[in-house]
Design brief:
The relative contact order is 0.17. The chain has 11 helices and 16 strands. The protein is globular and about 55 Å long. The chain is α+β, with helices and mostly antiparallel strands. A hairpin with a 2-residue loop joins strand 10 and strand 11. Helix 4 crosses helix 7 and helix 5 crosses helix 7.
């Protein structure tokens, strides 16, 4: 059954100009200290950049940059991906066009659907908000459109908007180009650990599923009191993330502090590759999935982003690669099916927990040696 708060679309709430208590974080829940678009652009440590065209050619210098970025951040900015700024601008422009449609038009693609018992239920794909389970759950300040993009024959086209008319084709193209970036990254990550190119790709499968999430953050009257999107790690091997070119808000938890990912501005888009939970498990924590969140924009701004999550085939087994397990570095995670992990993500995310913790995938709480990446 659908919880009563499931029907609260943030865009409609924002139109009232007030902040309902359902969105307000308690002080102990980690209210954002920096909450405006301007604050997100203040001086911050630079996100490491990696040229994936050089990475594809096994350039040793670029491999060193990748190894350093993954060891310190768990993500990197992408250059050399071949996608033009006008193309990326068109994608997010089409997304804005969708979120600016009348509510009735967007509700045709609602993620609340008829249930077998005659009621209504939440399911991941479609338009709306993330799953709401309880009255105590603090809601995020965002609406989203979530779609399976690949394999092509797995698309549920009833959730794909027909307006704006170019949105679907732009998303398809982005997912294909993004998959190239993802595979280059995953291949290079295998090399970083001293393995053949196909080491991780073979574990993911040829029909690597991908899911796209367009997220819309409307203007917020009190951005320092809410989560635009709560702290989480990604349900993916890697995620390819396209940021808003004007409004910041993404923050990464680094060395115990939240660090802003600054926007490039000037009509230029930032593309990031982020390590996901599944890669952390397969690499036996040689690569760590970074915890990240989004701060809501201020009253005069809105923010749109696109994340594409590249996942293992659902029947693949997730486990630490045997080649990365030995007496000095025991297996950090239990074995489970990729589909079980993916399904558990939605339960964990609703509770604000990490899937690895919610499903009790960790063998124990002891951290592995810190030199896992740099020493490979």
């Amino acid at each position: 059954m659908v919880h009563q708060a499931q029907g609260l679309l943030v865009q409609e709430v924002a139109a009232d100009g007030e902040l309902p208590s359902r969105y307000v974080l308690k002080e102990q829940q980690g209210r954002p200290a920096a909450a405006t678009a301007a604050a997100a652009q203040r001086a911050a440590p630079s996100i490491p950049a990696v040229d994936v065209s050089r990475l594809a050619d096994a350039d040793p210098g670029e491999a060193d940059k990748l190894r350093s970025a993954l060891g310190s951040w768990g993500l990197f900015a992408v250059t050399g991906h071949g996608m033009t700024d006008p193309f990326l601008d068109a994608i997010l422009g089409a997304a804005r066009g969708f979120f600016h449609l009348p509510t009735e038009a967007k509700q045709e693609y609602s993620n609340v659907v008829d249930a077998d018992d005659g009621g209504r239920k939440f399911q991941p794909e479609g338009y709306g908000v993330d799953r709401v389970d309880t009255d105590e759950q603090v809601l995020d300040w965002c609406d989203r459109l979530y779609l399976q993009v690949r394999p092509d024959d797995a698309r549920q086209l009833r959730f794909w908007p027909t307006h704006p008319p170019d949105l679907a084709e732009l998303l398809k193209e982005f997912s294909v180009e993004g998959e190239k970036v993802a595979k280059i990254a995953v291949t290079a990550m295998a090399r970083c650990l001293g393995f053949e190119d196909g080491f991780f790709v073979d574990k993911v499968g040829e029909r690597m599923p991908s899911y796209a999430r367009f997220t819309y953050y409307p203007p917020c009257p009190c951005p320092d009191l809410v989560h635009g999107l709560k702290p989480h790690t990604d349900n993916s091997v890697v995620t390819v993330l396209l940021l808003d070119e004007q409004v910041g808000g993404l923050q990464v938890l680094k060395d115990g502090s939240w660090v802003d990912v600054p926007v490039l501005g000037g009509g230029r888009h930032q593309l990031l590759v982020v390590v996901g939970d599944e890669m952390e498990i397969m690499s036996n924590a040689a690569f760590r999935a970074p915890v990240h969140r989004v701060v809501a924009p201020g009253e005069e701004a809105e923010r749109v982003s696109l994340a594409v999550f590249y996942q293992p085939e659902p029947d693949k087994v997730l486990e630490p690669s045997p080649e990365l397990v030995d007496g000095e570095r025991p297996a950090m995670y239990k074995k489970l099916q990729a589909k079980v992990f993916a399904d558990g993500f939605w339960d964990a995310f609703a509770l604000g927990e990490r899937t690895i913790d919610f499903l009790k995938v960790k063998v124990d709480a002891v951290d592995p040696p810190a030199a896992a990446v740099s020493g490979a």
